[in-house]
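We close this part of the discussion by returning to an individual protein. In the encoding step, the backbone of a single protein was reduced to a row of integers, each denoting a local shape. The sequence in question and its structure tokens are set out directly beneath this paragraph.
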Amino acid sequence: MKTKLIGVDKAFAVGERFGLDDNGQFELLTLLYERHGEAPWPESLVARNATRMLCQNQQKSQQQAFERLLAANGDEAVGLELRHHTLEQWAAIFPDASEPGRFRHQYFDARGFFSHGTFDTAQAALKAAIREGFCVLDPGVLDRLSQTPEWASGLIALEAVQRHNADIWERRQAALLSTI
């Protein structure tokens, strides 16, 4: 298989396709010139370097979000309420009630809670939430949403699912005990 070589214009297009802004595309070209000389370059080399730069930019951006959110809450992760940057979903950082000494990020939307993760530190819970896109500070959102009719109906639906699951579990346990 022959390696496809591309010039500067195509390298810009590759950078754009990988989500690099104009500055990122110029950084990509600078890196390619410094490390690999004049164009043309193998397309796979350009793509690999664009991917690496994108990952580095995301890590830097996530670290900046982490520092900004902690600073906004007195250097404390517990109690932060965050909105997803594109979705109508939120996360809150709490001590974990089911595992004392641990912490959780609790995900929710207008209808109630839908997922969580448990971590050794509140900072680890915050970093995980940021990686998932929850990076917009939204203090008081849990109180606001929990007062709505939509939240109340979501809780009713959740209780029905929990009762159903508990009933299934009890029947399975009874069936298992009857075989002993």
About this structure: The chain has two domains: 5-72, 81-177.
